[in-house]
Amino acid sequence: MSAPRRVLFVDHAGVLGGAELSLLDLAMAFGDRARVALLADGPFADRLRARGVRVTTTPMGALADVRKDTRLPSFGALAAMWRTAGALGATVDPSELLCANSQKAFVVSALAGWRAQRPVAWILRDILAAPHFSGANIRAVITLANWRACRVIANSQATADAFVAAGGRKSLVCVVHNGIDAAPFDVVTPADGQAVRRALHIPDDAFTVAMPGRFHAWKGQQVLLAALAQVPNVHAIIAGAPLFGEQAFADELRARAARLGVADRAHFTGFRDDIPALLSAANVVVHASTLPEPFGRVVVEGMLAHRPVVASNAGGVPELIVDGESGVLVPPADARALAAAIAALRDDAPRAARIAAAGARRARTLFTVGAMARGIEEALAAC
Ligand code: UDP
Asked: Which of 214, 278, 287, 312 has most ligand 1 atoms within 8 Å of its beta carbon, as the pocket-test mutant?
């Protein structure tokens, strides 16, 4: 077996999305052998430093303006990409392998690795398909991956399949599911959940669902609000923030809750750092993405919290949940089906408890940080 690699993980984001939370656990599991280079400063850098991970930031300038659905990057963005790649490449140690954790980070890392003569792997956490990405964007990254990547590590089979369907080389890809640390969920007490409810003024006996997630139309907060209108007396804790500039959508959600007459039962908490306690305040955890979800950390978190999870049946989610056994799958963007699934769990407590227990077991068996770190280590050995 080859010696373990020293890895320079690269991520473009300064904020804490799911990809960044997964990288945090991964970098900690790699210990001294890992460094992280970020293309933006922010709370993610602070969180990494607080956990003892070595971090450098190389700001990406105008490249920050390029979005997933951008067709043609501006000249300024391309120049910024080249500059950032040069700056990143200059920091790479000859013993290090570059491992990109996001699409933008992969583009910069591929160029940096080419300039520094270092191998580049890509942890692929996106479903490379419309409407998530523009056709031009997909073609550009697939071409770059086929040319420069030594390994593409997909976070689900669905993510891997989309890469290959878009023209990615099949022999490059392997699947390593995310792993999530169970420890923070295991130390939560009923009093923590009760405190969350009290702070949100949710009656102790009110049946409550929780949905954490980035605020974005495809994450489906609006579907949960529509479902709420169909299940009287059920409360919803809706945690998260518009991390990548979707403020108008966040404002519209509150207005929509008022229009639907559910504003007194829809509790918007903003971004929370206490997801285990927050989930324990709920009877059911909801995932409502309207488009295929690459993985869906919140699904596994609901399982770790010993809560029955109702989730959208698309993308990587069916790899996480066995429908009716370790969770409940519903068609995406179907508020009526979501409402029916929530009501069915409310009305059959023994079934809800059975599903919660099976989900908790499955998450602790299949989606551990150890398995994720080992899988990524093995995948990188091919580079
Ligand atoms: N999250 C959080 N606080 C919030 C809302 C979400 O810490 O207020 C976390 C959530 O617990 C999960 C991650 O953000 O770990 C979202 O990951 P997921 O894979 O579900 O979606 P992504 O943001 O990667 O698309």
From this structure: 214
Q: Which residues of 238-251 are buried (b: 16+ CB within 10 A; e: fewer)?
A: bbbbbbeebeebbe
Q: How far apart are CA 160 and CA 336, in angstroms?
A: 31
The superfamily in CATH containing domain 6-179+368-380 is: Glycogen Phosphorylase B; (3.40.50.2000)
Closest C-alpha to ligand 1, atom 3: 272
Pocket probe for ligand 1: among 11, 12, 16, 21, the residue whose CB has the most ligand atoms within 8 Å is 21
State the Cα–Cα distance between residues 173 and 181, nearest whole angstrom: 25
Q: How far apart are the CA of 160 and the centre of ligand 1, in A?
A: 21
Mean pLDDT of successive 10-residue segments in the chain (383 residues)?
79 93 97 95 94 91 73 77 90 94 95 93 96 90 96 98 98 98 97 97 97 95 98 97 83 95 97 97 98 98 98 98 98 98 98 98 98 97 91
Judge: domain 183-366, CATH 3.40.50.2000: yes
What three-state secondary structure class fits 240?
Answer: coil
Q: What is the pLDDT of residues 66-105, one digit of tens each?
A: 777 666 777 777 888 889 999 999 999 999 999 999 999 9
* Structure tokens given for 114: 């080419």
What is the location of CATH 3.40.50.2000 in the chain? 6-179+368-380, 183-366
Pocket, ligand 1, Cβ cutoff 6 A: 17-19, 21, 212-214, 239-240, 271-272, 275, 295-298, 301
Q: What is the pLDDT of residues 25-42, one digit of tens each?
A: 999 999 999 999 999 999
Rg value, the chain, Cα: 21
